[in-house]
Design brief:
Strand content: 15-25%
Helix content: 40-55%
Distance between the termini: 34 Å
Shape: globular
């Protein structure tokens, strides 16, 4: 029997790339998956593929993670369809590179809204129920940019440092509640974000590599909390 049969997982940013692949892997483990993103047409296509091929069921639910009401409505829809949420994957992210002196304030605000506020809104929407049931798993997708900074990634890195700090603090806060927290820090992954920027000296990670790390973390016994996974290309 698949490891996640009967469990329900929400994945944000699930219309393509890492998020879509995470949803497919969790569904293949038997989980019911709720795909959240803004692009409903692409979400529906991914959900249809999962429903045809995987062991779990998929629901496409439009949500902009920078909107607290969108997230709360999406979680409510998930509850009505599948019941309690067991796994919440904060995958949606925005990477807009520039140096600070260029003053791209609107880009900074967009990244803060998605990469920090969006993570907090998702946690806030599912955490009370998880604590009440003494079970659940929060997975935050940070980045190696949350560990190292380049001159063009200063603000993006700051948001990913924040996501990692949220994971670290939340794990300590919830250590005796039965709710687990995992921070995933991917290195360079072959997604749409890399268009025109693929390295010539090494092969980037595949989205499957990140999804497999998440499956590993969320399928451990209840007494095991995998706090941190960093995945880099060689």
């Amino acid at each position: 029997m698949p490891n996640l049969t009967g469990k329900t997982a929400i994945i944000t940013g699930a219309s393509s790339g890492i998020g879509a692949t995470i949803a497919k892997h969790l569904a293949s483990e038997g989980a019911n998956v709720v795909l959240a993103a803004r692009r409903m047409e692409k979400l529906t296509a991914v959900a249809d593929e999962i429903n045809l091929k995987s062991g779990g069921q998929a629901l496409a639910a439009r949500a902009d993670v920078s909107s607290r009401s969108d997230i709360e409505n999406m979680v409510k829809q998930a509850n009505e369809t599948f019941g309690d949420i067991d796994i919440y994957v904060n995958n949606a992210g925005l990477m807009l590179r520039s140096v600070v002196q260029e003053g791209n304030v609107e880009d900074w605000e967009d990244m803060i809204d998605v990469n920090i506020k969006g993570v907090l809104y998702g946690i806030n929407a599912v955490l009370p129920s998880m604590i009440e049931r003494s079970t659940g798993h929060i997975v935050n997708i940070s980045s190696v940019s949350g560990q190292e900074v380049t001159k063009s990634s200063t603000v993006y890195s700051a948001t990913k440092y924040a996501a990692r700090a949220l994971s670290m603090g939340l794990e300590k806060e919830l250590a005796r509640t039965g709710v687990r927290v995992t921070n995933i820090s991917p290195g360079m992954v072959d997604t749409d974000l890399m268009t025109g920027n693929k390295p010539k000296d090494r092969k980037p990670l595949e989205t499957d590599d990140i999804a497999k790390a998440i499956v590993y973390a969320v399928t451990q016994p209840d007494y095991v909390n995998v706090n941190e996974i960093t995945v880099r290309p060689v």
